[in-house]
Structures are given as structure tokens and as C-alpha cells.
Amino acid sequence: MAKAATRKSTSSKRRSGSSKARASSQRGPIAVAGSILVVAAILVTFLLVKLNTSNSSPLTGERSVPTSVLNAIENVPSNALDSVGYNSSVIPPLVSLSGQTPLTASGKPEILYIGAEFCPFCAAERWPTIVALSKFGHFSNLHLMTSSSTDVAPNTPTFSFYKSTYSSPYISFEPVEWSTNKSTSSPNNFNGYSILQPPTKSQLALFDKYDTSPYTTQSGSIPFIDFGNKFLQIGASYQPQILDNESWATIAGSLSLPQSQTAQAIDATANLETAGICIMTKNKPANVCSNPVISKIETVLGS
What is the pLDDT, as a whole number, of residue 5? Predict the structure, then answer.
């Protein structure tokens, strides 16, 4: 199982988390020519800076997800997912909860996600979570983003759930992106990163209740996903380094290639989360939950 980011220090009123191991004018033809050269040099410099920035600097959720990428993630072919299947010795099962008050919203089972934009482990886990949730509903207003440039697996390509919306007739999805991927010197920070979306009091209560022993060996870890108070996913299911130096389009396209390392990690985790959600929804919709691969994983989870 991949490592997770953990809260480890205090800042302002809230503990923080960490995934770190942490011009004058001239006249005349010569002057004009010189001015043209200067302008050209400035333009070239600007283009180089822009290219280097777009390729290497962390994004902050400002770029919308291209339709082709979103379609590839929301519509991973069933034969690819079935071919990958699920192996509990490679991807650990979800943590089962028993006897807990169901977590619901608007009369539907609720999935609570708590992560942060800087966190590479959150970056990795968003991919399969989007694949799985897309079986039950639809995302809008997702944005491209990378994890911190100074953490482990720097600049991991991912998405931000901040200000996104998810609609489903079966489940409710409540995402929390606790901080940005931009460092700050402000005392009000989350592991040195600017606060973005602090959990509500009730969300923090669930986080503090379940993100600790005996459910995890790393208390306060992110990503933290509570599947209706029935299952927990704490930390990433696979190492974010698998996504190193890959573009969003390449990763999304690889999900249809069962033999690729990317599909083996993301598709398998998506299958696991899909099975967990099917248990929550009492196997609705049938076209998703009656899949033999999903049904088999449900038995692993103890449905």
C-alpha cells in the first residue's frame, strides 16, 4: 500500500498535514532595428518561460479538464476494467466499519473525501475515485492540477475537486481540498500550504474519529475517504511515482490498456471502490453492480 500524507504540526487553530519525507525611447533606423530585436528577444523569453512553466510548474486548478480526457476517465471500457480485475495482495481492500450510523446526505449514502492539493498521494487516489464515481453519476467543473513541486513524486498530474460538482441519483459526494499546492509563510497554513477549504466541524469529527488506530497505522493521513461510514480508504492505494512524467492525456488513455502499469493500479482501485459503493447503494444501478468482477470484490469486502 502506498504511503499517506499525515497531519503532524499545528498552525493557527488547526493541526496541519504533511506528505513530505516535505525604458527610454530612441529614434532612427538603427534604434528601430535595435528596438525590434529587443522586442523579439522579450517575446522569445516570454514563450520559453511560458513553455517551461506549463511543463514543469505545479498548477493550481485553473485549467479545465479537456473533454477528451474527461471522457476517457468517465468511460473506461468495461472489458479493460474486467481484465484488470482486482487483487487484494496488490491493492489492499477498503477498511470495513460495522455498527456505525450511516453517513447520508439528501437521503442518499454520502462519500466524504478529505485531501489537499499539495499531496501526491491524494493526487494518485483522485484518478480511480473519479473513474469509480463516474459509474454512478457525473462530474462537472473539475480542473487540472499537479501536486506540490517540492514533495515526494513532485508535480504528480491530477485534478482538483475544489468547486467541482457531482450529480448522482444514487450517492452524494462531498469533497474537501484542505489546502492549495502553493506554499505560504502565513501562520494559518496546512503543512506550510495556503488554506483552501477547511473541513466543517462535522467533517473534521469524522476525520478525527476514523483516521486513527485501529483503522490506520498513520493517524491523520490523507487522502481520507469515508464511504458512508461503511468503508474507509486511508492513504493512496498505489505509489504516485507510477504517474511520473506522464501527461493527463497519456494517463487517461492508458486506462483502456489493461497490461499497462497505470491501468493495473488505477483500474484495480476503481473496481474496488465501485464494489464498495455498490454495497452502499444496495447494488444499484444493476448494470454496474451486477458485473461479475464487481460482485466478486463485494464478497472480498464482506457484503
Answer: 74
